[in-house]
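Hi V.,

Quick status before I head out on leave. The structure for the redesign project is tokenized and pasted below; the design run finished overnight.
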């Protein structure tokens, strides 16, 4: 299964307001099932659409906030790639400050836990 980008202010706001929330040790995920409503997106294609955001409250340094976002996104990408059957879903990943100092395996365990919760 492929990981696609979730982009656009309206689409991300919809996921933030209407989406369900899942909290793990290293990240918080807001999600809505189904593909985003956009003219360029084919609703028949099943994919995982993911976006990330990290508030300035998370860490003062933009470099470290971006590292947290990249680690969470990479953990999601590797787990989605291994699975064949997942529903079309829109995700917004919000890393927690613990995702900067923890092992990558902990982040992957959080993602596995979320994906088993969803599917």
């Amino acid at each position: 299964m492929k990981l696609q980008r979730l982009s656009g202010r309206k689409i991300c706001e919809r996921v933030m307001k209407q989406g369900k929330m899942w909290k793990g040790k290293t990240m918080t995920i807001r999600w809505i099932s189904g593909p985003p409503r956009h003219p360029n997106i084919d609703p028949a294609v099943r994919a995982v659409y993911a976006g990330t955001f990290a508030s300035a409250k998370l860490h003062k340094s933009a470099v470290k906030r971006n590292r947290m976002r990249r680690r969470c996104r990479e953990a999601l990408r590797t787990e989605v790639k291994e699975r064949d059957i997942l529903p079309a879903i829109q995700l917004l990943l919000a890393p927690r400050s613990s995702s900067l100092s923890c092992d990558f395996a902990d982040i992957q365990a959080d993602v596995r836990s979320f994906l088993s919760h969803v599917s």
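Above is the designed sequence. The CA atoms of residues 34 and 88 lie 5 Å apart.

G. will cover questions while I'm gone.

Best,
W.
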